[in-house]
Amino acid sequence: MYNLWEFLKTRWWGQLICALLFWAIAVFEYWHIGRQRYIHLFRWPDLILYSMFGKWGWVWFWCLFAGLFTFFGMWNLVVRICYGKSDDK
Question: What is the pTM of this model?
Answer without folding.
Answer: 0.72
